[in-house]
Design goal:
35% strand, globular
Amino acid sequence: MKNLHQAQKLSRAAQKSITGRGPASSSCPPTGCYDNAINNSNDRCYILSCRSVYGYMQTVNGTRKCCF
């Protein structure tokens, strides 16, 4: 039962990281969608930890996010 509880905690942490609610990964290229991103007027965006890789702004669960 302890392993199940640890797996559930890991799953929640992974979901937060993928949807951008958790800390941004410093790896490039980034994967997933991020709340905290820099957006330009052409729906292109990037995250501060990986400025050379551009993603696209998308609506995810009603919120605009930068997705790669």
